Amino acid sequence: xxxxxxxxxxxxxxxxxxxxxxxxxxxxxxxxxxxxxxxxxxxxxxxxxxxxxxxxxxxxxxxxxxxxxxxxxxxxxxxxxxxxxxxxxxxxxxxxxxxxxxxxxxxxxxxxxxxxxxxxxxxxxxxxxxxxxxxxxxxxxxxxxxxxxxxxxxxxxxxxxxxxxxxxxxxxxxxxxxxxxxxxxxxxxxxxxxxxxxxxxxxxxxxxxxxxxxxxxxxxxxxxxxxxxxxxxxxxxxxxxxxxxxxxxxxxxxxxxxxxxxxxxxxxxxxxxxxxxxxxxxxxxxxxxxxxxxxxxxxxxxxxxxxxxxxxxxxxxxxxxxxxxxxxxxxxxxxxxxxxxxxxxxxxxxxxxxxxxxxxxxxxxxxxxxxxxxxxxxxxxxxxxxxxxxxxxxxxxxxxxxxxxxxxxxxxxxxxxxxxxxxxxxxxxxxxxxxxxxxxxxxxxxx
Amino acid sequence: xxxxxxxxxxxxxxxxxxxxxxxxxxxxxxxxxxxxxxxxxxxxxxxxxxxxxxxxxxxxxxxxxxxxxxxxxxxxxxxxxxxxxxxxxxxxxxxxxxxxxxxxxxxxxxxxxxxxxxxxxxxxxxxxxxxxxxxxxxxxxxxxxxxxxxxxxxxxxxxxxxxxxxxxxxxxxxxxxxxxxxxxxxxxxxxxxxxxxxxxxxxxxxxxxxxxxxxxxxxxxxxxxxxxxxxxxxxxxxxxxxxxxxxxxxxxxxxxxxxxxxxxxxxxxxxxxxxxxxxxxxxxxxxxxxxxxxxxxxxxxxxxx
Amino acid sequence: xxxxxxxxxxxxxxxxxxxxxxxxxxxxxxxxxxxxxxxxxxxxxxxxxxxxxxxxxxxxxxxxxxxxxxxxxxxxxxxxxxxxxxxxxxxxxxxxxxxxxxxxxxxxxxxxxxxxxxxxxxxxxxxxxxxxxxxxxxxxxxxxxxxxxxxxxxxxxxxxxxxxxxxxxxxxxxxxxxxxxxxxxxxxxxxxxxxxxxxxxxxxxxxxxxxxxxxxxxxxxxxxxxxxxxxxxxxxxxxxxxxxxxxxxxxxxxxxxxxxxxxxxxxxxxxx
Lengths: 447, 305, 272
Known about the structure:
CATH architecture of chain C: Orthogonal Bundle
Mean pLDDT of chain C: 88
Low-confidence stretches of chain C: none
Number of strands of chain A: 14
CATH class of the largest domain in chain A: Alpha Beta
Number of helices of chain A: 18
Low-confidence stretches of chain A: 1-31
CATH superfamily of the largest domain in chain A: Periplasmic binding protein-like II
Helix content of chain A: 40-55%
Oligomer: heterotrimer
Number of helices of chain C: 13
Strand order of the largest sheet of chain A: 2-1-3-14-6
Radius of gyration of chain C: 24 Å
CATH class of chain C: Mainly Alpha
Structural class of chain A: alpha/beta
Radius of gyration of chain A: 22 Å
Shape of chain C: globular
C-alpha cells in the first residue's frame, strides 16, 4: 500500500531528523535540526525546460551561485523534457548515481513520490536551522505536490494554459478579446469565424494529452477517480469520456480538416512558432508561451483565460517543481538542495521568473505583489486566471504514478482523432487502456 | 634457379611449428577488446533477458523465459517488427532506385559533370545526427520549409513528423539522403569500370536507353548492387540516430523500429533491461538470418565477369 | 542537335538534383544567419535574407560547443589510434605469425561483425557503469578499440605483400616490429590511410553509444551535444541551426581534403 511506503519513508526521515537534532544540540542551544556546512558543497541539478524558460531558470541559478553565503554551487544539467529526465532518473537508480536536485514535471509527482527517492522539503535539516515552510506556496500550485496533507516538492515554475491572440486578427473577424468565449466549443467557433472572415486560420495548438485533461477539468470532470487520486485512496480508473468532451474533439476534428485550426501535430514548439510568425490568430498554450512568443513575434500579444464551462471547473495549474532526492545523498547535500529550493521559491525569484517567461509565481507573496502592480494585459490575465481558479478535485489534476504511461495512450487517441478516427471510440479506447495501466501500477507498487 | 619457397629451407630451421610469441602478443589487444565488448556482452545479454526489474529500476530476479513470452504476446512488438521490416525494405529499395537515378546520368562521360559528382558528396560531409536535425527543421509543422512549399503549391500541412501516415516515409527520405554519397560513389565506380566497348557493340540509339540499361548496364554492376543491398539492409536494421533525432519512435509508435524499442525498453523510463535484452537477441537473429538469406539467395543472381 | 538537347536535359536534371541535395544544408545555413525570426515560415527561407551573429552567440551560450568538439576530436584520435594500432598488429600476426589456421583467427574477428553494437548496447552500458566509467570520454571510445573491418582490409592488403622481400628481410635479421614499420606499412600505406579515415569518420559520427554513456554537457561529444542543443533551444530555433553549422565545419573540411581516400575506402570492400 502506498500508505506503508510513505510510512516507511516518513519514519526514516523522522529518525534522521531526530538524530540530527541530537547532533545539533552539541553545537549550542538550537531548537531546529542543523547541518554544518563543512566546506563548499557542489550539487547537480537536473532540469527539463528549454528556450527562454531555460534562460530564466539558469539566470536564477547563476544568481544563487554567486550570492549564497553557504558556499553552495549548483551545476545545472539539461536532461531533455520531463519524460526524458524521469527516464534517466530511473536508469540512474540502479547505479546509485542519482542527482539530489531534480526538476520534475507535474504529472510525474506521484511517481517520484512513490519511488522512495524523495525527501519532503519540510523534513530536511538546513544549514541555518530554519526548515523550509510550505505555507507561502500558492494553494493551487501546491496541489500536484501534496500527499497526505504534506508538501513533497517546491513548486518551481507554475504553468496554466491560456489563449494568446493577435488582437488585430480577431478584430478583423468582428470578435472582441474583452468578451472571450465561454467554452472550448465556442473557442473553436471563433477559430472557424476568423478563418472564414480573414483566410487566416483562427487557432493553433499542439495535439497533446494535456488538452484532454484541461478540457475535462474546465467542465469540472474528475479525470481519474476517485477524487483524481487526491484523496486517501489512490486513483483506480479513468473517467473522462462524456458527451461534452466528445463534442469538443469532434468540433476540433472538423476545424482541423477545414483549416480553421492549424495542424502542427504534437509539436508544441511548432505551434508557438506558427503563432509567432502570424500563421494563426490565436494560440492555445501554457502561460510560459508568453515569454517565447513575445520574443519572437512582431505584433503585440494579448491573452485571455481558458473558458470555464461549468462552475467548479477550471484550468489545471501544473508545471514543474523542485524535488530533493535525498536517498543516497549526504546531509550537507540535502541542506544545500533545500537552500536552493528556498531561494527559488522566494517571492523575488518567483516574480522575476514570471516577468521573464509567463510561468506563474508559486509564492503567494509574489502573486499578491504582482496582482497589485501589474499593468500589462496578458500578464494580468494570466495572474487573474490563477487566482480565480476554483479549488476542486477537478482542477487538481489526476494524481497517479501510472499517469505518465497512461497519458501516452491518450496522446495516441488524439493523434488518431486528428487523422480522422471516430472520436468517441478513440477516447474510450484510451480511457480503458489507461485504466488498465492504473490497475497494473497499483498492483506493482503494492506487491 | 634458386627455390626461395619455404619448403627449401633446411629442416633445422623448421623446428619451430606454430605461432611465434610476438604474434600472440600482437593479437592480444584486439582479442581482449572483442571479448570484452562483443562476446562477453552477448553472453550477458542472454543472461539479462531472463531477468526482470521493478517499477523504479531495481533488478528483481530471475524470471526465465517470461520476457520472451511477454514479448511474443505483445501486439506492439509485432507492430514494431512490421515497421522495422517496412523501413528496411522501403529504405533499401529507395536507396538503390535514387542512387541509380543519380549515378546513371552522372556516369555519362560529359564535360562539366564533375562538379555534380562533387555535389553528391555533400551528404557525407555532415554527420547523421546533423543531417537528421537539418531535416527536422525542414519538416517542422507549418513553419518548416516542406510545409511552406506544400501550402504554396495548394496543399496543406503535411504532418511529416507528426502524422502516422507519413512519418515512416519521412524517416526513409532522410535515410536515403544521408546514404546518397556512399551509394552514388559506389555505383559510379562500378559504372565507370564498365568497358565502353560493350556499349559500342550494342545499339546506342537514345530511345533504347532503358533497354540498354536493364539488359546490359545493370547486370554488369550486380556485384555492387548486391553489396549495396546487403550493407544497407543491415544498416537499416541498426539505424537509430535518424529516428531518434527526428521522431523518437513516434508519432504513436509509427516509426518505432526494433532498435528504438531496445533503447526505449532500457532507457525510456522503465529500466527494463530484461525486455530490452530479449529484443536485442531478436535483432541479432534477424541480422544473422538476413545476411544468410541474402548471401544464399542473391548471390546466385549475381553475375560475375 | 538532338544530342545537345539531350545534354541540356541531362544538365538540367543534374542541376536540380544537386540543388535538392544541398537544400537541407542551405536552409540551415540561411536560417542560422537570419535575424530573428530565424525561420519565417515563408518561401523567403530559401534564400539568405539578412545577417546576424546572434544565433551563433546563443548557441555557444546554451551548449559548450567548443568543449564538445574538443571531446569529439579526442575520441576520434583515441578511437582511431587504437583501432589502427590493434588492427595492424592483429592483421600482421594473422598473416605472418605462423599460425596453422590463420583463417580461424580471422574468423573470430569477422564473427564480431555479425554482432551489431545495437544488440549489445545494454550489456556494454552496464559494464561501463560498473567500471565507474560513466560520463567519461574513455567510456565513449574504449568499446571500439578493435575493428574487425579494419583487420579484414589490412589482412587482405598484407597478404598481397611479396614473400621474397619478406624472406630477404628475415634473412637480414629484421624482427617483427622492424619489418612492420620499415617495410610493411610503407608499402601498404594506402590501405592504412583508408582504414584510418573510415575509423575516424565512424568515431566522429558516433551517436547512440555516447548518448548512453555521457550525461553532463562538458563530457558529451558533439553529435549528442548538438542534438541536446536543438532540444533545449526549443523555440530559439536559430540557436539550434547555428549549432548545426558549427558542428559541420570540421567534417566538411575533412571531406574536401579526404575525397580520394573516401572513394577508395568504400570501393575497396565492394568490387570483388
